[in-house]
Amino acid sequence: MQPDSVQDVPVDSGDLITNLVMLGILLTVILIYFLNNPLKHAKDFRIRCFLNWFPLGLTYAFLYMGRYNLTVAKSSLGDLIPNQSFGDIFGLGSVVYGCAFLLNGPITEKIGGKKAILIASAGSLIMNVLMGVCLYGVLNGLLNPDALVISFMVLYAVNMYFQSFGAVAVVKINSHWFNIKERGVLGGIFGTLISLGLFYAFNWGDLIVEATKAKPDASMGVIEGALRSLLNVNGNIDQIWYVFFIPAFILVIFFFIILFFIKDSPEEAGFANFELGDASESDHKDDLEGLALIKKLIANPIILTIACIEFCSGVLRQSVMHWYKIFVEDFGSLPGNVEAFQPAQFFCDNWGLLLCFAGILGGMFAGFISDKLFGSRRGPSAVFLYAVMLISAAVMAFTLKGNQFLVGCIVVLMSLCVIGVHGMLSGTATMDFGGKKAAATTTGLVDGFVYLGTGFQAFALGRLTTIDWGWWPVFMIPFACIGLYFSLKIWKAFPGTSK
């Protein structure tokens, strides 16, 4: 029997402790940044650089929260958004995201990264508000439930269009502030911030859903209770729309932080520009723009190979991240499976936290071995991580409906690997081989392939999982093989200026 009010609910401090741990991780990341100074930059420059990348990274993390809250909402809405419809909504949004890079990359080259991240924040917060309004209307009987899927399909696609400005803006700005020798560790740092974005999306998202239930569960966390009181939750309807409204509110705050603190280059902040050691001078001496620049990048075999690898990363990352909890909910609830799926509940309850830790470890591992062991080459990191993903997917195919603790460990390990690869290639290698003159367009091209892969897996798994969940890991194996093959092809790749 559920308690009738928040006063009847026992308080659990677990959510507060978890968020304090996340704060500790954030402070550790800051410490790593200040300890890693291979070019011996002056103290005042390092502090100003921190004031540039730190709010930029947090803004990008909260953009993640405004992107993956769709998955949290799907888990809570059940039959209002069936698996196939969820796959179609997320798939269309991902394809829009991927294709938008062809337009938004060159736009960002012209207007600069600061304006691009402002566009991303403003556009995403507006779309999140509108999705929240639609959900409010459906749950309160003001809109036909049949309209929810169509409304979300349109609004989420537009949200993803604006979100696509975020990635190119981050890389464009950082390409002016960091030398190639610093970027491996930077990739690990930003991998950590991206992972915090996953934590915000899934753990904070689940926390918002729990806090806004009409009747709370048997126990409630400290933060959940405070949020419930702040929002004055009452009535007989689960107020899930807040999972869209709250990220929008946070993005409003960071919009103004970006407006006042971020500079596109050291020169704009009053410092001298410096040698970056990447392809800025050697590969992009001409001032090509738009389609001409895209054609030149596609003709570069290294960039095209990275794009192919990242298509596979897009397939694998979202195949694990979005479908694991849905698998547990669908297959684990069948008669006779409930007891066998008890171990899976730990992974579902802590999914955002586990993804966060996996992303941090993967990003830091890939960044440190790239800079410290392989002379800032990015290929070796991708090879090692893809090899682990291939083995993991193969093992998962044989254990999917068996040992659920092992399956949970495998999906976390695969998340670690694919986030590490993604941060190293889309976030770091694109700066290296694009240079500051073409960083946004290169990132757009590569990240476009990531989200084409994401869209492909969403459409495919939305249908395959409806037939049989056994197709889920089998679907991932060929993409792990292809990603490993192309990663081996760029083992020795390095920008021409620093050979």
What does this molecule look like?
- With 499 residues, this protein is an all-alpha fold.
- Helix content is 75%, strand content 1%.
- The chain has 16 helices and 2 strands.
- It has helices spanning 14-35, 43-77, 83-111, 113-139, 146-177, 183-211, 222-231, 242-261, 290-298, 301-321, 324-331, 342-349, 351-372, 379-399, 404-467, 471-489, and strands spanning 11-12, 220-221.
- It has a two-stranded parallel sheet with strand order 1-2.
- Helix 2 (43-77) packs parallel to helix 6 (183-211), helix 3 runs antiparallel to helix 4 and helix 6 (183-211) crosses helix 15.
- The termini are far apart.
- The model is unreliable at 1-7 (pLDDT under 50).
Map the helices and strands.
Elements: E1 11-12, H1 14-35, H2 43-77, H3 83-111, H4 113-139, H5 146-177, H6 183-211, E2 220-221, H7 222-231, H8 242-261, H9 290-298, H10 301-321, H11 324-331, H12 342-349, H13 351-372, H14 379-399, H15 404-467, H16 471-489
Parallel strand pairs: 1-2
Name the average pLDDT.
Answer: 80
Strands of the widest sheet, in order across it, are 1-2
Residue stretches low in confidence (pLDDT < 50, at least 5 long) are: 1-7
Order of helices and strands: EHHHHHHEHHHHHHHHHH
Distance between the termini: 68 Å
What characteristic shape results from the CA principal axes?
globular
Q: What's this model, at a glance?
A:
The chain is mainly α. The chain contains 16 helices and two strands. Helix 2 packs parallel to helix 4 (113-139), helix 2 (43-77) runs antiparallel to helix 8 (242-261) and helix 4 (113-139) packs antiparallel against helix 5 (146-177).
